[in-house]
Design goal:
By secondary structure, this protein is mainly α. It is built from three helices and two strands; from the N terminus they run H-H-E-E-H. The chain folds into two domains: 70 residues; 42 residues, no CATH class. Strands 1-2 form a two-stranded antiparallel ribbon. A hairpin with a 2-residue loop joins strand 1 and strand 2. Helix 1 runs antiparallel to helix 2.
């Protein structure tokens, strides 16, 4: 993985450092200071869960966020293939298409591609 791929994960852990530090202090260090270590395995189980679950959840969030951003980026690129045209008309094969009227409402539902704007005949 490139360093740029690690940046969101590192950033997420940096943002979570203070809240996680406070959480770990309250849930692990304070009970240790009060003698919870004497309870043995029960406190050890609690400490393992408390220390492992938050980083796993942060990692899962970063993976889902990256997937959503990838899908959204792909969708935006595909939408950018079509040219957005407002308030104009053009002629193609003796037909005039008004894309938007004076109020800005479409007069005809039309998907306009750059090829159609240049009036290049279809093959």
């Amino acid at each position: 993985m490139t360093p740029a791929a690690w940046a969101p994960l590192v950033s997420a852990f940096r943002r979570a450092a203070l809240p996680l530090g406070c959480y770990y202090t309250v849930t692990v260090l304070m009970p240790l200071a009060n003698g919870a270590a004497q309870s043995g395995v029960a406190f050890l189980d609690h400490a393992v869960v408390v220390l492992i679950v938050p980083p796993v959840l942060i990692l899962a969030y970063c993976v889902v966020d990256a997937a959503v951003r990838t899908v959204a980026s792909t969708w935006r690129r595909r939408q950018a293939q079509y040219v957005s045209v407002r308030s104009c008309s053009f002629t193609r094969r003796n037909r005039t298409f008004g894309v938007a009227n004076s109020a800005g409402f479409p007069t005809r539902s039309l998907s306009v591609t750059p090829r159609a704007l240049l009036d290049i005949p279809d093959r």
